[in-house]
Structures are given as C-alpha cells and as structure tokens.
Queue: 3 jobs
Job 1
Amino acid sequence: MGMTLGSHLTPLARSQIEQADVVFAALSDNIVELWLQRMHPDVRSLQPYYAEGKSRMKTYRQWVELMMTEVRAGKNVCGVFYGHPGIFAWSPHKAIEVARAEGFKAHMEPGISAEDCLYADLGIDPGRFGCQHFEASQLLFYERRIDPTGYLVLWQVGLVGDLSLKRFSTGAAYRQVLVDVLSEDYPLDHEVIVYRGATLPIQKPRVRRMALRDLPGAELTAEETVVLPPSSPLKQNLAVRERLAALDKEAFIA
Amino acid sequence: MSDTIELLEAIGQNATLRHASADELASILEQANASAALRSAIAAGDSSLLSKEFGHKPNQAPQISNVPGHEEDESDDDGDDKPHHPSEPGHSQPHKHTPHKQ
C-alpha cells in the first residue's frame, strides 16, 4: 500500500487488489482501510487479531492461516500491508513460502516503505556513509556490530526489549538499556533523530531531534524510528588502499 | 458535502495539494465543500481530528517485531489457537526464521 494514502499505491498493486477474489489488510490507519474498501468488495481486516497480552507470533500465524484458507479454496488472494509488505513483516513472507510449498503461485509486489520515506524526509542518502538497520530489540538480544561512521536506523524503539511479543510498548527503563548499549559507540550528547512518516496526505512527517541521553525520557510511539547519524568520520583503510594502488600500477604497466 | 476519503486520495495524488500549506489547503477544501472534520484537522495540523467523522479506531502498527529472540520458537504450537495445517503430502514445515533486513 505504500506509506501515504493516495500517494504511494503503485498501479500494479492497485491492479492486484482489484483483480483479487479476496483482500486481507494490515494497514496503518482505519481511514486507509476505508480507502482500500472502496477498491474491492471483500476486504478483511487483520487488525482484530491483535490483542494486548496476546503473542504477536500467534497473531501472525493466524494471519497466514486466514490467507491460506482462501488460497486452498481456490481463490486469488491479495494481502495488503502498509509500506512495503516484505519489510518488518513476517506473515507476507511466510504466506508466500507456505503457498509455494503447497504448489500455489505466490509473489510479492514491492511498496514504498517507511525507510524510503525516511531517506526523502530527512535528506539522507544511505549510500553516502553506509546505513545499518536493526529492529531495536534485536540490538539488545544479540551482539551486533555497529559502525558509527555510518548511519544507524533503529526500528520499533517504542517496544524495545520486549521478549514476550505481547506488549505494544515498553517504557523508559527499557529504552535506557538501549541507550546504555548505544553509548558504547556513541557519546551521550550525540544528536539522534526521532522520525515518523506521514500515513495520511494531510500529515507532515514528525521529526524530532534530541541528545541520545534524552531518548529514554522522550514520549515515543510504536511507529517512530530512531536515526543515529554518523558520530565519527570515515577512517581510511591504508593497507587495502596500498594493495589497490599496486593493482592499479600493474594495470597501467600492462 | 464532499466525500472525505475521495478528497484525501485527491490530495495524496496531487503534487500541489500534497505540499500545500494549511492555509492554501483550507481555502481549496472550503470550495470543495469538505467536511468540518477534515477542515479542522488541516487547520489544526492534527489528523486525529478526523475521528469526529470516522470514529476513534486506532490501528496497531502492523507487523511490529521481526520476532527478535523468537527465531527458534517459530515452530512451537500455541495450544488452542493453533491454526489448522492440512495433512496433504508435500506440506513443508516452516523454515527457521532469519532476519529480513541486512
């Protein structure tokens, strides 16, 4: 569906919706769902399967089963997800995997993601200094290597550290753990950006800047993303550059 | 009164409208006979005011969590909410989950 109502739905995605027998939807706004309902007579919201205190893994498996039930009944099924259906989205990939394993045709159309909007709205070129992306919780649960000479984008910081998969937000204490981990690579006064893209065309993106140390105390929604710009300059790899220079010399002599 | 969803779609698809200021948009929407909820949402810069027209129905941000820490739990049953799996030959077991984003 892309991120913003009206702006990002691709012609091909709209065609998939219109040509489907049944449409399942997991979207950002109920208003976007209403918009989608105008494109097809049988749109089934996946929202009711979320519940506080219920493992999201259970919800996602239910989503897959809902879609597969219709696939097995011989229908042309379209799953519509906000942003890009394959980014921070388990069930679309799983549904395709299961469908193909059962001999059905299935594929994914790409969409404009929150990441795409982030680059545009914040003026960031991920190719300039490199860009790492992590779900914030994964950064806590696993030892990951951060390169502070590039951009670091942390997704779903609002529920960082939730092992239960049953909460939709964790609190300041959990974000403090994240800040403590990040402080191994970044100074606490390093400016971070808290970003939320526009999902309705009457919205502007929400962009807040604050020091890393202030992140735990900030009000943060589940949809917001934290960006850490580079905190150090790129460091030349002298040994590799010498090796490349030697290759260049050989090439010119040859 | 003009349909709000149609107006939102029109704003989303139109480069001028999408990036118009609140004042510019307010003027256009008044001419288009937009709903009071839409006009107040734009004037206030607060899309939550659309709830006056559509009700307050917050969506959970879909697909929260790339299941960190639960990759090894992907095949676990959840008891009474276990989805039905068909017993046809060739039905493959779910693969171990790996992170999507690298």
Job 2
Amino acid sequence: MRRAAVLIFAVMILPGFAHGEVIAIVGGTVVPMRSSQGPVERLEDCVVVISGARIACVGTKSECVIPAGARRLDAKGGVVVPGFFDALTQVGIIEVSAEPSSGQGEESVDPLTPHVRAIDGLVPSGRVVDAARRGGVTSVLSWPVGGAFVPGQSAILTTQGALPDAAVQVQSAAMHARLGDDSRWMRVALGQTRAGQIARLRADLIDARSYAEARRAKPRAGETRVLEDARKEALASVADRRLPLVVHAHRAEDILSALRLAQELKLRLVIAAGAEAHLVANQLAAADVPVILAPVRVAPHRFETRRATLATAARLVAAGVKVALSTGSVYDVRNLRWEAAFAVSGGLDAGEALRAITRRPAEIFGLAGEVGMLEAGRLANVVVFDDEPLDIRSHVRTVIVRGVPDPSPEQR
Amino acid sequence: MTRFRVCVVALLAMATVTTTGHAADDFVLRRARVWSAAPNARGVDADTDVLVRAGRIAAVGSALKVPAGTREIDARGTWVTPGIVDAHSHLGVFAAPASRAHDDGNEWTNPLTPFVRAIDGFDHEDPAIRRAVEGGVTTAQILPGSANVIGGQAFLMKLRGGPVSRLRIEGAPLSLKMAMGENPKRSYGSKGQMPMTRMGNAHVLRQAFVKARRALEDYKAWELKKEGKPPRMEPDLEPLAALLDGRARLHIHCYEAHDIETIVRISHEMGFKVAAIHHALEAWKVPELLKHEGIAVVTFADLWGFKLEAWDASVRGPAILHRAGVRVVLKSDHPVIEARHLVHEAAKAWNHGLDRDEALRAVTLNAASVLGLEARIGSVEVGKDADLVVWPDDPFRVGVLPLRVFIEGEEVVTP
C-alpha cells in the first residue's frame, strides 16, 4: 500500500505531471481525515507533499520523498488538516446583503425558480471569499439568493478567490427548496402555508416527471415531440434522482413532511438548517437522509426553532445520521470551526465534529474523491493551524487552495 | 428644590424602583481560580476564596476565615469571574419567539421619540433572559432599536427571574439611545419622509437639541429669578435637556468613521457628551478622536458585512482601540447575537489580538463603566454586588457554560 503510494507519487512528479509549484508541508500533527468512522487518525513527524493543484503524498518522510526544489512550509508545533467545507452558504452570491446590487441580486418574480443556477451569478472573489478562506474554509456550497420557495440550484466552489470557471467544482450540486417561515411568498396562490408548499412541490415534481417521460418517448405518427422546457428539465433532474433535493427546514414537522415527499417520489433528499432535526433523528437515519446543520447555534428565537438545542448534532450522529456542520451564513463562514466547537460542547465527539466540516459534506455531495481529506490525488486544500483547530487559542497559519497558498492569511 | 429638579428627580425615581431581591444566604467559594476583571488585574488568582455577605462581595483572598454558619462551596477546579455585563441588548423588547406581537423595540412612527422607554415595551417572560443568565450574563442594558434617530430611553436590569420591578437596577442614570447612518434614513426615507439622508439625520437631531437647549436655558433663567410659573418642559425635550445638563448618558448607534465625526461635531455644537458609540465597526479608523473625546466603543468582535456601514470592519478593531487607550466594550445586540453567547465574543476578540484580561473586562468592568455602574458591578472586588459566575473551565473555551451564577448573592443558576 505504502509502496504503491510512493510509486504513484513518483509518477506524479515526472515532468509534465506537475502543473504548478511543489510544496512540502513538513512536521506538525497531520490529521488527514482518511477514516470515515472511529478514532481520527493523527500522524506525527509526517509530510504533505503538494504538486500543482493536488496532493501528491501524505505520510512519513520515507514514504513521501520531498522533491528537490520543493517549497518547504514548516508546520512544526501546528496541526495540518484538510480545508473545511461549509455546505450551506451564500458565499459568492451575496456581497453586501443590504445592497443587492453588490452581489447576485434577488429573484422575486416566481416562488419556484428551479432553473436558476447559482453559478450564473456567482462572483467567487472579494472580501467575503477571502474571509471564508482565512477562516480555513476552502470549499463552500452556495445556493441562489431570494425569498423563493424553490430558489434554484447551488454550486460547490473552492475559495481561492478566482473567476467562476476556476473556482467551481460542481456547477449544479443540488436543487434547493425552503420550507417554513423564510420562504413565505405572499403573491403566490399556492405555497403560502406549509401544507401549500409541499403540495406545490409535489405537483411540480410529478408534472416534471411526466414531462421527462413524454420527452423520452418517441412521438407516434401524427404527434409532435414535447417541446423542451428549462424549468421542467430542472425539476425533472430532481424527480429522476440526478440532483439531490436539499430541503431547508428547521421545524421537526417540516422535516417529516420532506421525508414523506421524498419517500413518495423517491427523491435523493438532504435536510439543511435542521434546528429540530434531533427530534426526528431515527426517521432520518431510517431513510438514510443526511443533515446539514446550519448553523449549530440556532437560538430558539422563532416559532420554528423553539426546540433547538446545541445537542442536535450529537443526537443525530448517535442515531446514525450523516451530519455536516455549517454556518448557514455569508460573513460568518470564517467562523465555521467555532460552530463545530459548539457542537462538541453539545456532546458531539471532537473527531466527528472535524469530520462534519471536512469529509462529511464531501460525502453528501459525492465529492469525497476530491476534497475533505488529505490523501494523494485529492485537491490540495490544506490548512495549517498553530493549535488544535477547534480550540479558541488556534489561528490559521497557512491556507492552501488548489495548491496555492494565501500570501496573507491574516483575517482582515 | 425647583420644580424642574423635582420633575427630573421624579423621572429618576421612576428609574429607581427598588429591586426586591431574595434574602441571599451568605456563602464562601473555596479555592477557585478567580479571574477578577479588576482594573489592571493580570491573569487568574489561583486557590482563592470569595466571601459573600448580604449580597455583596465581603472578602477575596486565600484561606478566608468566615463567620460560623456561612455556606461553604467547594470551587476547586473552577474559574470565577464577575457576572457578564451586556451593554447593548434588546432582551424583552424583541422577545422570543420573534413575531409581530413581540416587536416592541422600535416606535417606528417618528424619527424623534426620546420620550419612549424600553421598560414600557419590556416583556420579562422573554425566554431568552433565562438562556442569557445560563450563559453567565447577570446585567444588561435594554435599549430601544435603531429605526429612529432618537430611539428613546434605555434601562438597566439584573437577569434574575421575575417581573420588571424585581429586575430593574436602582439608581441608574437616565440613558438615551440614538442612531446615525443607514438605519434611520432607511426607516424613514423608504416612506418618503425625513430623514432620507445622513444630512437629514443630522438635521433632525440638531433641531431637537436646539429646542431642548432653548427650553433648558429658559428654565435656568427662570430658576435665577423664580418669578411667575416655571417654563413648561415638554416630555420630548426633557430627556435631551437632561443630556445637555450632564444628567443623562448618550449611547449612539453609529458605524462609520464619518458618522462618528458627525456626532462628535454635533455634540460640540450643542454641548453634550457622548458616553459610547455602539456597533462602531469603523471606530478602529479613528482611535485618536475617540480617545481625545473620551468616548467608549461598544462593538462586536467580528460581526461584519451585512450592510455597507458594516463592510469595513476589522477583527483587530478591539485590539487597536484598546492599545490607543479607548475603552472597549463587547456586547450582544441580542437577538443579533444571542446574549447567552456573549462571552464567546470576548474569546474571539482575544483570538484576534485583544489582551486577554482586557477581553474579559470588555464584557464586565468596561461594560459596567459605560453604564455608570462600575462602582457597583463588573469585577470581583470587595464591596461590589455579588454577581458571580462559576465556570467549570476557562470561560473562553468555546461553548463552556457556567456551573453556577449568582446575582447579588442569590444563586440563580445551580449545578
């Protein structure tokens, strides 16, 4: 196994394979997050070799030969972790939230805009992206802004601060639907109530499925082919399980409604927000539906979050639910690790908390082969902290996104 | 005593309803790590006892001899701090659950409402109060919101349970809330009313002070001769007259450097003092001005970005201001940040470079100071109210919650 790693590395450093700089992070404690369960592996006296945009080798100095001419980054006394992944943000979508003109703006003509894609208005550079990265967050899922019930499709991007084509990992990561208070959309006939929202979504998904079947069918003699409809195409991708449906819901009852709908229509469901998800942990586990808890510190300040608790993440994990932790924010994404630390104070195992901001969100969106762990072949999204990352004493010392270190990682 | 004085005294008397605290038992915390937040105190005093008698701190030291019958509390392994003081909170005026029915913090009908009082909108059954005290908060200043240029009168409370008559702090000075910048101009400009611009904000404020100053001058002229009936002091001018006369404190919501300069300019023109600028995310750009004016900064650790006046914040702001000699206070602005988590704001400010002891003072003694309560609360010192928090660990550890909280010696949070 180890020999194979060396071999792969030897192949990767051949001329022509290294696209960018070769960087060796030497020393410190490497926490690669390679294991999905059990105790979190911690490697002492190891190196992480980066070649171009990808990790070339993670292991001891004998396992990973540091190529001559590699730029060495000393991580002595520090902790080396995969860059964090915040799976429910509006980074690159919103810049100054009170000034819609600064960002993507807001669709407010239709409560269901499934064909709106975050990537088409994304500006993944600027102060918001810088702040996230300098908090150690190297991947974000960003969903389209708006009060709409179905605001559209999210993108997953890296936070190096670039144009969308260089930053985006997944153009269309998921369809988003928002149940509950945030999405009351008063001008629409159906969808003002919670029951109305589910009814509307069910009707539109069934309609999209019929549309897709009709599109696939060969028109019989005398019939014309069904015309393409971008809106229905978008929903059809949810109906036929190509796209996961991320339902933003806090209230336990709303989560159950989403589970019913997903079971009925056989959707790939992800629950986001989830302040009261612990109350339906067993149902979520039975349905194998992951939860993006966003944020961890929900105040019981709204009717739909009255039963919120810091123990939610711990209870979900204990029930066997796959949990990602998120800030659910724009500006506070840089504080993702404190949200994880709050989940620990609510009873979550510290290793699970770290998984929940690295590999779990990657697993939920099928990106575990790309991000969320330090392993040869993965994107070189690496953060070096001067202490344990969930400890209030820690600071980001180095952030590397796609192999490129931030030249000034100090938070503004 | 003149009638105007009587009037003001009456106003203050209303603000000084005696709290009806439970007769608290005397007790001693034994062998704690005491992080006192006292002026110039550095670090933690290990193995220290704190004796509480009749709701006050009676002694702090090692191996204290205490009167017979004093309750002994083994505090080994714990940290003891003063109660957390939240200098900017909307507990009870934007009570949970958030709803139209609970929206009692902004009298959004007139940009000048100096006569409205937060206490009259306060719901003591807001469940966030209990959650806040469970986070170690023992005192809060409850302010009206920032929709209006002059939002109204704040009040000070201790976070023990019960009706407002039991919560309100006795003898506190009148405290006025005002607002500069985006909020008032958005609130009224969107209705096509004045103020629509920062110019309008400044104008309505000046106009109010001009009237109040005239009324105050008329009154003082009358006071010299005492001929005829005293001039009438309207309720919309009285709080401003008190401010001009140095009998009230001004807490002003103000983010940007140029807005800070504007309020300083207006304060010089009109002759009043600014106690503290709140939110103040650009205060780090004008530390010398604030130092020179003796204005404290009541700010966030790292909240930023949501509007243009919050765009140019710096996480190093608190550290920069402290080094320049400006008094720095961190607050929750509850429900913006849940009051329960205020100590985490201090911890983050420390993480971003603010001196560790000063970070604690920013949520205790410095906050008490801007509220005019520094003689009474804010540090673990003999003679002060026994508002004490016993933490199982370093209070700056993320998510740590108190084991015990005492307010004036009464144990309001128990293990």
Job 3
Amino acid sequence: MSTLLIDIALFTILTVIGLAIARIRQLFAVAMLSGLFSLTCACIFVLQDAVDVAFTEAAVGAGMTTVLFLGALALTRSREESTPRSRSLPAMLAALATGALLIYASLDLPGFAAADAPVHRHPLTARYLQDSPSEIGIPNVVTSVLASYRGYDTFGEVVVVFTAGIAVLMLLGRGAATSVSAPARVQPLHQQNRVLRVVAKLLIPFILLFALYVQFHGDYGPGGGFQAGVIFASGLILYALVFGLDAARAVAPLAVLRGLASLGVLLYGGVGVATLLLGGAFLEYGRLGGGDALAGQHLGILLVELGVGICVTAAMILLFFSFAGRGAGRPGKTDE
Amino acid sequence: MTLLHLASDLLLGAGVLLVLTGAVGLHRLPEFFTRTHAASITDSAGAGLMLAGMLLRVEDGGTAVRLLLILLFLLFTSPTASHALAQAALQDGMTPLSGARERAR
C-alpha cells in the first residue's frame, strides 16, 4: 500500500516536472529540472529494485548531464525563443500522435512484475540467474551479466563514450586548451568565497574515495566502472568549479586525460586479446586464471571494469574541460 | 521503547513541519534572498530533523551509521549550497530587500 502511494507520488512529480520543462523558457531552470527528473527516475528505479540502474541514472542523469547542460548553456543563449503558433501546432499534433501511439503500444506490454512476462520465461534469464554463481562466482549478477556474459556490449558502450569524448574534443577542443586566466576574467570563486573553498576541500577526498569504493565493490553490490568513473570525474569537476579551471588542468593535464581515455579502451580490448592469445574466445575471462576459471573471471571483470572506469573518468573530465574552457575563453557576455 | 518512538515521532513531525514551512515560504516570500532562506530550511533543518527521527527508530548499527553519515553530509553541503547561491546572486548585482529599501519606497 505504502509503496503504491510512493509510486503515485513519484510519477506525479515526474509528470509535473515534464510539463514544467515543456513550458519554462529559462533554459537554466530547465537544466536543473531535467536533473530533478533524473533523480526522480532514480528513486523509481530503486523502488523497482533496479539499484544498479538507479545508481547510474543518479550519477549520470542528475549529476554529470546537468553540469554539461550548464556548460553548454554558458556557450549559447540561456533563453528559449518562443515558436510562432503556426509552427507549434503541427509539432503538438505530432507529439500527441506519437504519445497516443506509445500508449497504444504499451497496452501490449506484460503487466508489471508479471511472472509470465517474456523476460522471465526466456531460457537465458534462468541461465544467467542460476549459473552465474558457479560460472562467474560473484554475488552481483548485474555485474556478471554486464561485464562477462554481455562483455561485447559493454565494450561497445565504452567505445561509444570514448568516441563521444573524441567528437567533443574535435568540435570544442580549442576551449579545453585555452588558458582561462587571460584578460578580464572575474576573480576565480576561491578567492572570494572561503566557505565554498573549505567545504569543497573537505568533500573532494571523500568523493574520490567513494568513487574508488564503487569501482572495486561493483562485484559485490551496485556499482561498477561507469558509475565510479562519473563520480570520480565529478570530484575533479567540483574542484574545477571552486578553484578555477587552470588549477584543475594542473591536476589533470589534457595530454594525460587523452592518454587515459584511450588507455581505458585499450585495457578492455587488451583483456580480450589476452584471452585470445591464451587460446580462448574474445573476452573469455576464464582463460586468464591459468587452470582456475573462476579466478580468471574475477581478474577479467576487475580489469575490464577498471578500463571502463578509467575511460569514463577521462572522457567526462575532457567533456567538462572542453565546454567550460570554451565558455570561459569568451569575453564577458550578458544575455538579459 | 515507547518513549523513543514518541521522541522519533516528534522529530519526524517537526521535520515535516519545517519542510512545509520551507515550501510555503518559497511561494510567499517577496524576493530571491528570502526565498533562498526558505528553501535552505527544507534541506538543512527539515531533512536533518527527519533523519534524526529515523535514527531513533533503526535497530541495527549499520543503518544508523549510514543515516549519521547522510546527516553529516547534509549538514556540510546544504548550507554551503545556499551560501554559494546567495553569494552568486549578490555578485550578480542583486541587492537583498532590506528594511531601509522598503522604507525608501
């Protein structure tokens, strides 16, 4: 009963936020609201026992995306133009038609948590859930599916993150390299705001420590390379926000970040090549442990998750540096 | 045990009241700084009291330690966030609505 009430409340909040995002023209407010939207989604995922997904949603959707949105807004105008009614009407019709179609399609979905849903009847589900303890030997089945059974997919995801990092660097890369302390910059925040500086210094070590915990605890509980990478990056981004971009670049130079981003992908792919050389299939971790397949799985998952973590950390920081550096390099621009 | 429960209820009730106060204040107060003040009540005092109320109800130590850590985290971050917000607004040229300005009108 109480879960139902919480569900209803959360979905109401979700709808209200969605409507607000559609109506509000101040894009800074929209960016914050979309962060709130992700956070509410994360709460719903937790209620549905999908803690790993909730974790990712909270870290990426509510944390990183909001920061990147704000960075992007600093490069453009922060106010949406109002569309003339003649053009907004067809758009609304298209949106309504798509929505109606989606609702119609959702009627065909199995009921929530129905035991006879196709996912539960698929033989693969039973195999993953029953054989994972003996085949992979780690408690968190999500991690064993993500890193071992579906290792190819995850490798693809890491490459996507890496490619996105490269693409942003190519488009905005000049920003990442320009020095910010050039002319007519406002005083960096840390020289004027002691409270922020002290609290940030207090928090950053714990954020980084937490990221490492999430990284290496992924086998046992919710967590893993993706979440850990984003959390680690957010620690450094907090440092950049409070102490200035130049100070953050001194900690994490661009060349190092670029190297690390590639190193992550290489580490992942390298594990695959190593298993090939040992006579197995690509990413067949069991070969890594000598005779002990379980030890091999452990080692393989650890290395692969480390690759994911390193690549995501470096790519996220690179994204932030590119956006923020580009924005800061511009002369003081005021809109409204 | 019942006394503990009563104390926990009181703390939770006070927390809810403060959150509601914050929400009302956010709507009714006249300008940015007063509204920031109202909003900051929600996550510092409101959430703090609710966490304290929950702390009196938990049975195992692990959960208690986690709640304490969340409380500690909130005590550091939420006032800092409000402070940074107000500071940024001040720097942006916003002036707080003071008694003097009110009289001058």
